[in-house]
Design a protein that fits this description.
With 124 residues, the protein is of the alpha+beta class. It is 31% helix and 29% strand. It is globular.
Length: 124
């Protein structure tokens, strides 16, 4: 992991930790203005921080547009069932790690409604 990845990871962990603390505080106080249980949101965020990875198979790699198509199992942190879909790659270098047909483990997030792969590794 290079220095930039360490910095980005540290920032993400700090942000998630803050969010998880806020969600816990809201759940404890009974204040929820968004319709979903904050404690559940905190658990889903914590799953990503802890590196819970989903499993899938690479169907297409589009390096030019920084996209990857994955046939995946359930995405627990996003509450999504198994399906095949296109994800944005958080970093173009992630796409250098895999090729069509590879079985992979990955972490996907949904910042601003844009499904994004933030980690990916081929399964050996």
């Amino acid at each position: 992991m290079n220095a930039l990845e360490h910095i980005l990871l540290a920032g993400a962990i700090g942000s998630v930790a803050s969010f998880a603390g806020l969600a816990y505080a809201q759940a404890a106080s009974g204040h929820d203005h968004h319709g979903a249980a904050p404690a559940v949101k905190a658990v889903k965020v914590a799953q990503v921080v802890q590196g819970e990875m989903s499993e899938g198979e690479v169907r297409k790699v589009d390096k030019e547009n920084r996209k990857i198509t994955l046939k995946h199992g359930p995405l627990k942190n996003l509450d999504m069932p198994p399906m095949t879909m296109v994800f944005q790659a958080a970093d173009a270098s992630l796409l250098d790690k895999v090729k069509v047909g590879d079985k992979v483990r990955f972490v996907a997030t949904n910042p601003g409604g844009k499904l994004t792969v933030t980690q990916i590794q081929p399964v050996k």
